[in-house]
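Weekend entry, working from home. Most of the wet-lab plans are on hold until the incubator is repaired, so I used the time to fold the two sequences that have been sitting in the queue since the last round of cloning. Logging both here for the record. First:
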Amino acid sequence: MDQNMGTFKCTGDRTYMADDSRFNYVTGETNDADTPAAWSFANAVNELAKFHYSSLNTDYLKAIIDSWKHPGCYGVISAHLGYRLYLTKAILPLSVTAGGEFCYHIEINNEGYAAPNKEMEAHLLLENTGNGTLYSVMVPGVEVRNWLPGNTQTLHGTAGVPAALPIGQYKVHLVILNKVLGKTTNILFLWQMQMASKTQQRV
């Protein structure tokens, strides 16, 4: 059995790591140059995806890493390490009333090798295009660590708008926020809407 330089010693190790790595951070490095079949580009992509790699040591083995770079293969690998979130669909109103609510329907694909591995929150962020004022509302019930590769995630519900929010044009963003550090890690632009006064009708 291929032990992968000692990583997989027992029957079932590969299956265990494939399952366990769905929810844990995985990093590693290539085999040595004596196992060419293991570090072929096709096999490497398969292994990195199967074991949900988030990072790769590019210092070992440089000969192998360089062999991927020349034909452009490493660009494919680096573009998929970790999680890669892409907005595929967003349904939002063209205008809302200050003090009211608006409905949202958002679909996101993860095209990376791994799911996000930190506890994070999803927020809808309204950005006033005139003065840059920001208003954020948390999207409830979101567990980004379950956003596994190859799956479409759907967020839908209603969000309240403060009555004091100024009338104007607003960009709407979906923000993925690191819950512990309070830092924004991903911002996806969704839509632009008009904020109306209380006396105006919603479209």
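Second, folded right after the first finished:
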Amino acid sequence: MYRDGQGRVRREEDNWEGHSGISIVDPVANVGYSLDPSSHIAWKTLTPEGAELKQKLENAARELEAKARAREGGAGANAGDVETRRKEEMERARMARAGGVPGALERREALDRNRKEEKLPPQTIEGVRAEGIRVTTTIAAGAIGNDLPIVIVSEEWRSPNLQVLLMTRHTDPRTGESSYKLTGIVRAEPDHSLFEVPPGYTLRDSGIRREEARKRE
């Protein structure tokens, strides 16, 4: 993993099939790239902040258009239609946060009520001061067909100085324990080219990738 002074992050990982993948997140430009070294394709996505800004601009444009049609007395939307659409968009956003599954939001809210977050004493990891948070979530007996309560514990340790995730621990009786630790930390500024799409790559929008996946299904 590489991170520069502007907050741009590059990750290089091998998946379970042994194929390598590279991801770049650029919070300055509000974009991310997923690089496929085998096909030399760079898939471009908007960061959550970029997507939110785009959605706000699109919503504002639709409202202005609807109000203009209403003023002109055409068959378009009136002010009531604008308000109705706004409420529909809020409901869609609410469902999206829950994964788009009916009843999922209620289940998520129930889990949030059984969620405890605590700040842990600072410690040093790989020579870097780290601050930690432990989140304990308890799924009550019978909530998902379980006979006994399920206790899930997650820890995250971050460096406030480097603004990176240093270590995680996650335990769940259903799946076991997993952990992550950042090692070999070098504090020199990485080369700026690491956060750019390399020459020879074809840049494509991730929306095309999702559409191709749907067609294969």
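Plan for Monday: verify the second prediction. The two ends are 33 Å apart (CA to CA).
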